[in-house]
Design brief:
CATH class: Mainly Beta
Number of helices: 3
CATH architecture: Sandwich
CATH topology: Jelly Rolls
Order of helices and strands: HEEEEEEEEHEH
Oligomer: single chain
Number of strands: 9
Distance between the termini: 51 Å
Number of domains: 1
Shape: elongated
Radius of gyration: 25 Å
Strand order of the largest sheet: 1-3-8-5-6
């Protein structure tokens, strides 16, 4: 009977340890603040990271990619952070994106930018667009390339009309991406979670004292 009680107690302790570990794991994986709104972050279209959904930024075409017959480049936006972060989630608010891909700069002393493809979205089904990532390296630059928009068909018709229906056009046949906001997130560290919990506890205690 004694051995059975000891075994049950040991099992209970083991379950408690496992549950505590799971709780710690989930707390560590709470989303961080939006990195795109941190001081020092910049973008080739600043309206996309101003924290305002009523402003709309437009992607831009690489220098020298327009003005050639039959050219069909992808417009893009690049977000640059002052320090490297592990990105686990990207949220994009856009009314016209239909197809795009995302790159992260892996960083290299040999080249100015070492872009690595981290996500390829072939069909946008919702707005906002929520993307989970498992990037194995920290980065300080994210690039979004627009491969298709809901405005492309209208743009093609307008360009055919301008060319007199001859089937060729000058410049891009893709419309620019119109993006209200791009949000970048990582995971909170255990220390950040503990600090927030301690702050909440102090505020609650202060409120209780004021109510006395």
């Amino acid at each position: 009977m004694i051995y059975r009680s000891i075994a049950l107690f040991s099992l209970f302790c083991l379950v408690c340890v496992i549950l505590a570990g799971c709780a710690a794991l989930f707390s560590e994986q709470e989303w961080s603040e939006n990195y795109a709104l941190l001081e020092g972050v910049s973008a080739t279209s600043p309206q996309m990271i101003d924290g305002k959904l009523n402003t709309i930024g437009e992607t831009t075409f690489p220098a020298g990619s327009q003005g050639f017959i039959g050219a069909n480049p992808a417009s893009q936006v690049v977000i640059t952070m002052p320090e490297k972060k592990i990105i686990r989630r990207i949220v994009i608010h856009s009314d016209n994106l239909s197809e795009f891909d995302i790159y992260a700069d892996k960083g290299s002393i040999a080249v100015d930018a070492d872009w690595q493809l981290i996500k390829d979205v072939r069909s946008v089904k919702q707005n906002p667009i929520k993307i989970s990532l498992l990037i194995p390296f920290p980065t300080d630059r994210i690039r979004l390339r627009v491969l298709g928009t809901k405005d492309d068909a209208l743009l093609s018709r307008q360009e055919r009309a301008r060319s007199g229906g001859r089937g060729w056009n000058i410049g891009s046949r893709r419309a620019v991406g119109k993006i209200r906001e791009i949000e970048l997130y990582g995971y909170k560290t255990a220390e950040q979670v503990e600090e927030e919990q301690a702050t909440d506890k102090r505020e609650k205690e202060l409120d209780e004292l004021l109510d006395l």
